[in-house]
Specification:
This protein is mostly helical. The protein is built from 4 helices and 2 strands; from the N terminus they run H-E-E-H-H-H. It folds into 2 domains: 74 residues, His-Me finger endonuclease fold (3-Layer(aba) Sandwich); 50 residues. 50% of the residues lie in helices and 8% in strands. The mean pLDDT is 85.
């Protein structure tokens, strides 16, 4: 396997234009010239993973937010489908204000707060 090369700026521009500035996976609005770590930053995601022989041809690349790209990087397609289904079902429970939905809502909020705290701790 060849060492991964960074995506040239001209190719990043073409990838950006594919989905009008939104993550191909979740639809989150992306910031074209975001600096590393800045909100709205994006990655050039591979449809067929680089680790599995995927190329840097425009037909194999799509803009993704950081979160979606990391999930894709560390998960197979079956796991991604399962995560998405669980998310859809969980969101329906939350909207329906069921007992499970309320529990999921609390869990989601707590995890989100933990994540913010961890980031703030790293900053100093």
């Amino acid at each position: 396997m060849n060492k991964r090369k960074s995506v040239p700026k001209s190719l990043r521009e073409k990838v950006w234009s594919l989905v009008s500035g939104r993550c191909h996976i979740c639809g989150k609005r992306l910031k074209k010239n975001a600096k590393k770590g800045e909100y709205g930053g994006w990655h050039v995601g591979h449809i067929k993973a680089h680790a599995r022989g995927g190329s840097q041809a425009i037909g194999n690349l799509l803009p993704t937010c950081r979160d979606c790209n990391l999930i894709l990087k560390h998960s197979g397609s079956k796991r991604i489908k399962k995560i998405l289904r669980l998310g859809v079902w969980g969101e329906a429970e939350i909207r329906g204000k069921t007992k499970l939905g309320k529990q999921l809502s609390v869990l989601y909020r707590n995890r989100k707060l933990e994540r913010v705290r961890r980031r703030n701790d790293k900053k100093g």
